[in-house]
Here is the input.
Amino acid sequence: MTYYLDFEKPIQELEIKIEELKKLSDDSDIDLTQEIKRLNKKLKELKNEIFSNLTPWQKTQIARHPERPYTLDYISMIFEDFIELHGDRRFGDDPAIIAGVGKIEGISYAVVGHQKGRTIKERIHRNFGQAHPEGYRKALRIMKLAERFSIPVITMIDTPGAFPGIGAEERGQAEAIATNLMEMSLIKTPLIGFVIGEGGSGGALALSVCDRIFMLEHAIYSVISPEGCAAILWKKDTEVGVEEYAKAAEQLKVTAQDLKKFGIIDDIIPEPLGGAHRDPQEVGKKIKAKILSVTQELIKIPSEELIKKRYEKFRKIGNFWSSLDRRK
Here is the structure.
């Protein structure tokens, strides 16, 4: 059964009506072909209207859609002979981070990504995609392994943020994320990142220091969630709710379109009408094609130059000025 978001209710009503007419047509001698065709045309127009005018908060909801494909879904679509590797060799394994090696058309890759979980039981097991320090250390271990064998690394980002629990803090959450940022900037093999859903806070950034970073059309990427931002800015003045979340999402510029304009990401991967969950295989093919094309580009660059270009890429993000500049 398809899950519909609040703003998709008109689509839901029309799709239900179309299904009812199809069933009626199949179960009786009444020919409803023309009516079904007319409603399908109306449905397409309605979808185009809704999904071409999405607000940042609506895009946030799509990025979190419970039926949206996760890292393991894309791995099964894109990679052959994938072998998952576990543990950080210090504390334990973190199911919120998937890490391993696989192949695309004979080319070996290391793959690292967040995994939120589909069922309630799995979501609890995966901690809703919120990684602990051992998750980020496992990710870095696999990246270092890839560096040793000179194979490219693919990261898939989909998390509300790193887990802020007491145990995670005691085991060095901030240090684990900071170490990933530093070490990824120096890895001598191509790093290609994809924000496939929700790219939240340092938990996302810990897998995002890449030579190329791409976002799916309805993914989001931000320093903080709209809810977290709204709670910080407006909790004292008013009861924080959807209106404040929408306002925060607008101000944070979380969408792929905004981030492409600011030069923070390299490109946007289009999604099917309605979101990636409407046709996961199509999105998987687009990600696979992007991986192969970018790999051919990056493997030609010598490792020292690759690191230099990666450093320059992140140094160019944002605008900076000093008090001396202001006086001029």
User: Anything to note?
Assistant: The first helix runs from residue 9 to 27. The longest strand covers residues 191-200.
